[in-house]
Amino acid sequence: MAAPTKKNPPFVSPPVSTETVQPAVPSTRAHVYITTPLYYVNAEPHLGSAYTIIICDTIARFHRQRGAETFFLTGTDEHGDKIAQAAEAAGESPKAYADRISDAFRHTWEACGLEYDRFIRTTDADHVRTVREILQQVHDAGDIYFSKYGGLYCTGCERFYTEKELVEGKCPDHRTTPDWIEEENYFFRMSKYQERLVAVLNEDPDLVRPERYRNEVLAMLREPLEDLCISRPKARLTWGIELPFDDRFVTYVWFDALINYVTAVRELGPERFAALWPAANHFIAKDILKPHAVFWPTMLMAAGLPLFQHLNVHGYWTVNGEKMSKSLGNVVRPLEMKARYGMDAFRYVLLRESVFGLDADFREDAMVTRINADLANNLGNLVSRTLSMQQRYFGGVVQPLADPRPEDDDLRATFAAAAAEVEEHVGELMLARALEAIWRAADHANKYIVETAPFTLAKDPAALPRVGTILHNLLETLRVTAQLAAPFIPETAQRIRELLRLPEGALAVPGPQWGDAFPAGHVVAPPVALFPRIE
Fold first, then answer.
1. I need a surface site. Which of 65, 120, 251, 443 has the fewest CB within 10 A?
2. In a domain, 514, yes or no
3. pTM score, two decimals?
């Protein structure tokens, strides 16, 4: 073995309470830390990666709207065999290739209007430093050792498989036969933490959610947990973070990439780290469950850090019932959907047509149907009818609330109930049900127009005060709808706010009491078509 290289200073984790913070509803949280997985730069952004980050963006907006300190992290994973091979195939250096694809992700997410707080790359200097410091600490504690190992290695997964994990002798994900590789490497004593991890999963049933994925992890842990190979010899791979204690090896991609979650908030300083880390919510697709639910918590245990608050796992998207692939020509690209339908329409359909944790199927014809029914006919029609009548009967000037009737109270109660449902459902990651609650309230407002018939009452000058009250109530429904929908369809919510000529910040939660946002004499704008019907 080569002489050990100079050690970095030990990683010292800031003091963090190990007490689990699990409030009843998200709006009570003072601190929220939300992460996407780091997207691997062997492919450009598509429906699957867009879905994860749109969920995270929605939940981050939800918490910010309620005044919580929210840190939202995304980025790219850039080391490993697959990247080195892809770069070679493209005739580029690994760094140049990673720069190009990482820029494609950053450009796509910015063009989609996603509001993350940091875009981290595993090639960032602060991340490299944190990985090396944690490796050194775990090594010094005796949880990393050197050994010879032979095993079945899948380059696509960048991991060794046991015979039991293979399906008919092939990788279960890539359907390829793994290569037998025998070499000397460093290993993390992951098996040392197996019983502790099982105990944590049993004590905290919400650590991994939905429950089906916790059960899947517990099933994995019924078998003896092998130690994790955490290095690759430079003789085979040079594209990675060099081990701090042996310069002949680079770090295994998962022991590198997962640590990004710590790097990002550690760089904010000890106080913010201590506040945000216990509130960490990781969002991933189910294909990377084992690294996040087994490798990652045992790594944290070895590093002396508390575990994340939740690991939230969603299902796959198919396209017209088939797996998405370049060969089938059915890859759904977020910027193409934005150009065709608008980003809010794309966001709405992904969130409305999926149940978190289950697989979902994307069909463009169904997307058009949903846009026409929910966005054009329901919400768009409500905005257009209300503002049109406000212009026609009062020149856009808001009238006083007067002569309240039972139907007015019922309308207000419907929106109050919708607000309560949204709080509950977002806390449970039931985003589709939260949207259902909002749209049921909007549908009630459209029915309120039919039942109160302001267009008929306006023919009688003596009934104009009642018409003014009806329209004032309808303006409130637009404000509250925009407020509730803002995390899900942020551009549309802001357009409604602008049409109502309300100030910046008017959609914060909690907002004004019903009736207080529009003093008599306030002037709203003429209507515009928020979602023109798609033929």
1. 443
2. no
3. 0.91
